[in-house]
Amino acid sequence: MKFLRRRLIGLPVLALLITAAGCSSADDGARAAVPSPGTKVTALCQKLDKALPAKVDGQDRRDPTPASTLTAGWGNPAIILRCGVARPAKMSDPEADGVEVNGVGWLLEKQNDGSFRFTTTLRKAYVEVTIPAGRTGDGMAPLVDLAPAIKKSVPAGIAD
After folding, report:
1. Whole-angstrom distance, CA of residue 123 vs CA of residue 106
2. b/e for 16-44, b at 16 or more Cβ within 10 A?
3. DSSP one-letter code for 23
4. For the chain, which terminal residue's Cβ has fewer other Cβ atoms within 10 angstroms, N or C?
5. Lowest-confidence region among 1-5, 58-62, 82-86, 153-157
6. Taking the CA atoms of the chain, what radius of gyration do you get in angstroms?
7. Is pTM, for the whole model, over 0.85?
């Protein structure tokens, strides 16, 4: 009877180990919806992808899934960049908050979960950067790191 008892106690532990093994480090990676812009904007976004820095706010690049040249990520929790997003409705609000960081204008939107979403303004493609709540201490640092690549790859102007 002792053998049977040990075996039964071992089953829940075995089940727990199998469940834990099923949650690999790949499962905790960030996910990002891939935008679907037109051909001209996609070309700009692909150019931006090649110019993006390896580190943002001291965090290594760690792209979200599904893999796309229209999305990028850094760190965990991830700072997520999506290029070719639709023009945010909030840009029509004259009371909307905006900032300029190293020559790139941004619409600033605080999200309900405490994160911040920044979307470029006056560029030929809208580039959105989401900074998670746990990483907002030095709020503008990611934008400082991303500004040179955006200025180089996405010309100033009005997105179509």
Report:
1. 10
2. eeeeeeeeeeeeeebebeebebeeebbeb
3. S
4. N
5. 1-5
6. 21
7. no
Report the pLDDT value the prediction gives residue 136, as an integer from 0 to 100.
Answer: 55
Query: Tokens in use for 144?
Result: 């400082």
Q: Which residue carries 């939107």 as its tokens? A: 109
Distance CA 135, CA 119 (A): 17
In whole angstroms, how far apart are CA 46 and each of 15, 42, 75, 120?
44, 6, 21, 16
Counts of helices then strands in the chain (DSSP H, E):
3, 8
CA dihedral 20, 22, 28, 31 (to 10 degrees): -150
Reading the block at residue 150, the tokens are 């955006």
pLDDT digit string, tens, across residues 86-131: 999 999 999 999 999 999 999 999 999 989 999 999 999 999 999 9
